[in-house]
Each structure stands twice: as C-alpha cells, then as structure tokens.
Amino acid sequence: MNVLDDKTLDELREIAGRYPEKRSGLLPMLHLAQSVQGKVTPEAIEACADILDISAADVSGVATFYTMYKRHAVGDFHVGVCTNTLCAVMGGDAIFDRLKEHLDVGNDEVAEKRQGDQHSVSLEHVECNAACDYAPVVMVNWEFMDNQTPDSAVQMVEALRTGQEVRSTRGPAICTWREAERVLAGFPDGRVDEGPGAGPASLAGLEIARERGWTAPTAPAPAAVEAAGSKQEAVSEADTSRAESETVEETSATGESAAEKEEAQ
Ligand code: FES
C-alpha cells in the first residue's frame, strides 16, 4: 500500500480548491485516496480532515456511509452483482451464488490469486444500479455488464483474472480499480466517449414515442412565467395594503392606535 506522497497531497488540495466551499470536495478526495491506497485508510482520513478544516470524525462518517468507499482492500477488479428486486428475480441471485462458489469467497471478499493469475478479483452484492432495463446487471469497477447469466459472469471473471481485455457492454475497456477511482476523483483518462452512451433498452420508450408522434407537454413560455411572478407580487402587495388599511380602520373606529391600546394595558 502506498503512502500519500506530496503529489497526492497536492492533488487533494487541488480538488478542494475546485469548490466554493472546500468541504464539498470530500467525496472526490476520498476517491483519489482510494486510487493511491486501494481503500480509505486512517492516514487518508486525517489528510482530508486537515485540508478541509473539518474533524476526522466528519470524514470518517462520510467514508463509512457510502458503499463506494472501502475500509478494506478490494481486488484489481471489484465485481458487484445487483441483487436488488428486479435483477434478483431475473437471475442476479443465481449469478451471485455461482460467482461465490466459483471464486470461493463470501460477500465483500477478495478471491485468492491463483498461480498465473495477473489480477485479483473481489465480489460484492450491490443494490440497484438504475440499470434495471438490462437486468440482471453486474458492475465491474463501476462499469456496466448488462444482461448477464451465471455462465457469462464466470467467463468474465476468468478473463479479468487472466489479464484479457473485458469491455463494458455500455462503456470502455474495463480498467483497474485504482485507475477507475482516479477518474472518479476528477482526473479523466480520456476514454469517456468509448462505448455507447445509451443502449436500445433505455431508448425503447423514446422510439415508441417517435413512432406514435407523442411529445412532452410544452413548458410555459417565459412571458407566462413572468406574468405568474407579477401576479404573485400583486397578491403580496394587495395583502400588505389590506393589512395597512385594516390597521387604519381599527385606529379610526376606536380613536386610538393598536400601539396606544397596548400602552394603556
Ligand atoms: S434492480 Fe438491478 S439495476 Fe435495478
């Protein structure tokens, strides 16, 4: 595990400097720390706290809340099998069980590297990835592998372990965990446009709408929005005038103001 050297500390400060409130940089800073150390270490927590002028407890609270931050090492390729409702019934549970057996690991564990393996693989069950139209979905270092089966998932982890290129079904060739974490920290690797942006299943609704000539309701014109704003102002003004006139009426009816009444009491 690497230490946080001067270059990394400078990059952590650079991230903090990107935001009007520097503590807003905490999430990408933790990703950068993971890209260097493979996990969020006590050293990284102290460094982030120091740079952001917040407590180590604040940083630790964030690092332990979000599941993308790891307090123990994961593999070079972290495989997340979606076992949320739709993926589970479409085969996610079967994929997870098969991978557990094949890799001989439990949830959130790293498989032992075999002789000749180039990379390590870890396995975790994950919640919905908002990719239900491609269920059952598996993620590798946060890249989608759509419409998986137990057999295709086993083939995929074998390819990853033995150093073969694996391409996301909707993204680039899958890079290592640490490389992916650096991208999430806001240091692009120049491959953002590799692979399709959206697949046919996600665009099906749009295609049907085009065929049938459906369109979204038009947004109100700016003039209508302005008119609504003026109407609101007019209502406020009317309320103020009415309140003032009621005060005047009350004063004239009794011959003394509300303040005078209060003083008399
Ligand atoms: S339930 Fe798996 S992506 Fe939504």
Automatic annotation (TrEMBL):
<keyword id="KW-0411">Iron-sulfur</keyword>
<keyword id="KW-0560">Oxidoreductase</keyword>
<feature type="region of interest" description="Disordered">
    <location>
        <begin position="213"/>
        <end position="265"/>
    </location>
</feature>
<dbReference type="InterPro" id="IPR041921">
    <property type="entry name" value="NuoE_N"/>
</dbReference>
<dbReference type="GO" id="GO:0050136">
    <property type="term" value="F:NADH dehydrogenase (quinone) (non-electrogenic) activity"/>
</dbReference>
<dbReference type="InterPro" id="IPR042128">
    <property type="entry name" value="NuoE_dom"/>
</dbReference>
<protein>
    <submittedName>
        <fullName>NADH-quinone oxidoreductase subunit NuoE</fullName>
        <ecNumber>1.6.5.9</ecNumber>
    </submittedName>
</protein>
<dbReference type="InterPro" id="IPR036249">
    <property type="entry name" value="Thioredoxin-like_sf"/>
</dbReference>
<keyword id="KW-0479">Metal-binding</keyword>
<feature type="compositionally biased region" description="Low complexity">
    <location>
        <begin position="216"/>
        <end position="228"/>
    </location>
</feature>
<dbReference type="Pfam" id="PF01257">
    <property type="entry name" value="2Fe-2S_thioredx"/>
</dbReference>
<keyword id="KW-0408">Iron</keyword>
